[in-house]
């Protein structure tokens, strides 16, 4: 669809930030998903990639996500706890080199691909959950930390 001048600026700024942070790079991939702009409640915009077509072809990762209710049950009786939200959590997990080309997306001016796990891929949540469970495995086992993707609760 046609983008407004304001939306184009939002995309340009986001792409520049992602390049600077090493999250994306220019691409010549034969694959490409469309970019979409989603308005947020505060009036700003979120840049997203529409991976629906790609997701329909991906073999699903069945790594279990914790049930929120189970996590909340573990907080019963806790008098003090701290919550942390990992900013852009998926961007902390590098993409497999062979998979990078499939994450390609197009903007009005260029084509890019993700070096880090992008939001919108169907396997991003289980891949991230597996990663975060591994990183914090010892303190999770001891019951000091509850994890639901990029939300952490320290007990």
UniProtKB/TrEMBL annotation:
Pfam families: RVT_1 (PF00078). Residues 19-155 form the Reverse transcriptase domain. InterPro entries: DNA/RNA_pol_sf (IPR043502), Rev_trsase/Diguanyl_cyclase (IPR043128), RNA-dir_DNA_polymerase (IPR053134), RT_dom (IPR000477). One of its GO terms (biological process) is DNA biosynthetic process. This is Retrovirus-related Pol polyprotein. It comes from Schizaphis graminum.
């Amino acid at each position: 669809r046609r983008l407004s001048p304001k939306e184009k600026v939002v995309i340009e700024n986001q792409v520049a930030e992602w390049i600077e942070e090493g999250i994306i790079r220019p691409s010549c991939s034969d694959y490409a998903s469309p970019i979409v702009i989603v308005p947020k409640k505060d009036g700003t915009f979120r840049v997203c990639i529409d991976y629906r077509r790609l997701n329909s072809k991906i073999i699903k990762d069945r790594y279990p996500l914790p049930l929120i209710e189970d996590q909340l049950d573990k907080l019963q009786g806790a008098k003090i706890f701290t919550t942390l939200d990992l900013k852009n959590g998926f961007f902390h997990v590098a993409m497999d080199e062979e998979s990078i080309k499939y994450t390609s997306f197009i903007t009005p001016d260029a084509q890019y691909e993700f070096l880090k796990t992008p939001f919108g891929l169907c396997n991003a949540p289980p891949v991230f959950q597996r990663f975060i469970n591994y990183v914090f495995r010892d303190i999770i086992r001891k019951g000091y930390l509850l994890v639901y993707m990029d939300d952490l609760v320290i007990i």
